[in-house]
Design a protein that fits this description.
single chain; mainly alpha; about 85% helix; about 170 residues; 9 helices
Length: about 170
C-alpha cells in the first residue's frame, strides 16, 4: 500500500513540471523560435507515456523540424507520431503535405486519403489533396475537392480562389 501511495505522490508531483514544459514549448513555437520548440517537444515526446499526447508532441516536433529545414528528422518525428496514435488526422495531414513537397505524390495522396477518412470535413487536407491533384494534371479531381470544401465551409476563401484559378 505504501508503495502505491508513494508512486501516486511522485506521479502527481511531476505534473506541474510537465505542464510547464508544454507551455514553454508552445511559447517557443508561437515566437517562431523553432530551435527552442524542437528541444522542448523532443523532451516532451520522449518522456510522455500517454500515447495520444506523445503523438501530439512528435507531430509538433516534426513541424518545428520542417520549419528548421530538417526534413529527414521531420519525417522520423511524424512517423513516431503515427506509431503513437494511428488515429491522428493531423499526423496524416502533415505526412501528406511533406510527401507532396518532396515530390512523392502517391504517398501524399495515400496519407491524405487516410486522414480524410478520419476527419471528413478537414478543409486543409482537401486543399492539400487538391494541390496534389492539380500538380498531377487531374484538375477535375482538384475541383471536386475544392467543391467538397465549399459544401461544408461555403466561405472558405482558399477553396473559392482555387476554383477560380482552375477555371482560368
Amino acid at each position: 500500500m505504501k508503495k502505491h501511495l508513494l508512486f501516486l505522490v511522485l506521479a502527481f508531483s511531476s505534473l506541474p513540471f510537465h505542464a510547464q514544459d508544454k507551455k514553454i514549448a508552445e511559447e517557443c513555437f508561437q515566437k517562431a523560435d523553432y530551435k527552442c520548440a524542437e528541444e522542448q517537444y523532443s523532451k516532451l515526446a520522449q518522456s510522455e507515456k500517454i500515447q495520444q499526447l506523445q503523438s501530439e508532441y512528435y507531430n509538433n516536433l516534426g513541424t518545428a523540424q520542417r520549419r528548421l529545414r530538417k526534413t529527414s528528422l521531420a519525417f522520423k518525428s511524424y512517423e513516431s507520431a503515427l506509431k503513437s496514435n494511428p488515429m491522428s488526422a493531423a499526423v496524416y495531414a502533415n505526412l501528406g503535405s511533406i510527401h507532396s513537397q518532396k515530390g512523392n505524390k502517391q504517398a501524399a495522396l495515400d496519407y491524405l486519403n487516410k486522414g480524410l477518412q478520419l476527419q471528413p470535413e478537414n478543409a486543409d487536407m482537401y486543399l492539400t489533396r487538391a494541390k496534389v491533384y492539380e500538380n498531377l494534371g487531374k484538375k477535375d479531381l482538384a475541383a471536386k475537392d475544392l467543391n467538397q470544401i465549399l459544401s461544408f465551409a461555403p466561405d472558405n476563401i482558399y477553396a473559392r480562389t482555387g476554383l477560380a484559378n482552375l477555371k482560368k
